[in-house]
Amino acid sequence: MNEEQNIKQLPKDWKWVKVGEYVISVKGKKPKRVSNTKTKECSIPYVNIKAFEKNIIDEYTDGVGCALCDDGDFLMVWDGSRSGYVGKAIKGALGSTLVKLNFPDMYNNYAFYFLQSKYLDINTRAKGVGIPHVDPNILWNYDLLIPPRLTQQAIVSKIEELFSKLDKGIENLRIAQQQLKTYRQSVLKWAFVNDTFKDFILKDVTYKIQIGPFGTQLHKEDYIENGIPLINPTHIKGGFIVADTSFSILKSKRDSLPNYILTEGDVIMGRRGEMGRCGLVTRKEAGWFCGTGSLYFRPDSKKVNPVFLYYNLSSQSVKKYLDDNAGGTTMANLNLKIVNDIPISLPSIEKQNTIVQEIESRLSVADKMEESITQSLQQAEALRQSILKKAFEGKLIEN
Fold first, then answer.
1. From CA 293, how far away is CA 278, in angstroms rounded?
2. Residue 130 domain-assigned (yes or no)
3. 3-state secondary structure of 188
4. 19, 161, 267, 282 - which has most CB atoms within 10 Å?
5. Is 72 left (phi over 0), alpha (psi -120 to 50) or beta?
6. CA dist 201 to 289, 305, 313, Å?
7. Residue 79: what are its φ and ψ, rounded to 5°?
């Protein structure tokens, strides 16, 4: 909304300005002299992205030729994936990817919330082919509504009152999400803790346990776009297998390595990093390729229901076994011996089928609740933006 559209309904002591005509901006600079530790010569904190976003100082400078910022100054990320993000500074030398913004004679938090209201627009319209950066033609041409200072304070108070209620609701939704996670694990614990089940190790109930190919079997030139998807741990999300079309291989390459071709009913698991991350291969994923960072299990269908096996391997007890036994110093990883010996308890196939039906019935309810919570969180974010929009159109409080 611009001044011409709104001028008739605003009090005379309110005014519209262009941000670029009102704000004083200072772009940060990379200092010539930087130290990773504080020294007599380099004693001024260098406010880089880490210092700005996480309050972690890991560089110092002598300040020569630098722009300085003070506690509470407004800073905007000018370059990078977070372009347009605004926050408050700590005292030091202003980083080269940041800009200090000063709004003279304006109540600080009023300007802060105004800039927050523009973050998504600025970020999604950033310029640059390589590293994105704020488009000044967008930022400087925003219409900024300036009421009297006391009114600015009243608007900020109303924003913070509404945000406080909204944040409380979001907190309750997050708690509910965590409770659902606990419920899911309790369902799996109920399903697999039974003294009447027979104890096995995994190699006894599978036709095949296959670790992904060695790096020497796949070369840089083998990777293409829109080919046969490779499945590594990052492609296993919440039990689902999510392909990345930019990370794939030719069908001819896949066929030359048949040991790693996935079939319906296989259970694929990440063998590096987070232990116990696994997914069930459905008809959709049949024919995809087990990546170097994964392994898969091919169940003996006479002994174990593939879905039962998937849920069993997703349980906390299996995750604990893998955490306790995984090798590696910098990153946990699994070898064939570890996964061969995964302990597994099984009832009859008929009982497994019944348990699978019960698990899926209970988890279906949890899935619907999870979907409802996700929608509510999205609506909460939309409401936050709506509050800010009304605030800076002069509609949040009575004039």
1. 12
2. yes
3. helix
4. 267
5. left
6. 26, 15, 12
7. -125, 140
Q: Per residue in 326-343, pLDDT tens?
A: 887 677 788 999 999 999
* Predicted model pTM: 0.70
Task: Let me know whether 203 and 128 are in one domain.
Answer: no
Let me know whether 87 and 213 are in one domain.
no
The DSSP code for 67 is P
- Give me the torsion for CA of 275, 210, 284, 254, rounded to 10°: 120
Total domain count, the chain: 2
Domain extent for 271? 198-346
Q: How far apart are CA 261 and CA 357, in angstroms?
A: 28
Q: Say which residue the tokens 């095949």 belong to.
A: 208
**Contact assessment for residue 25 and residue 100, using Cβ atoms and an 8 Å cutoff:** yes
Q: Please tell me what DSSP assigns to residue 261.
A: B
Quick check: is 309 in a domain?
yes
In a domain, 215, yes or no: yes
C-alpha–C-alpha distance, residues 21 and 41, integer Å: 38
- Find tokens 């605004």 and name the residue: 86
User: Do 321 and 207 share a structural domain?
Assistant: yes
CB 212 within 8 A of CB 260: yes
Tens of pLDDT, residues 20-71: 999 999 999 988 888 999 998 999 999 999 889 888 899 999 989 899 999 8
Q: Which two tokens stand for residue 230?
A: 């490779």
In a domain, 387, yes or no: no
CA distance 319 to 271: 12
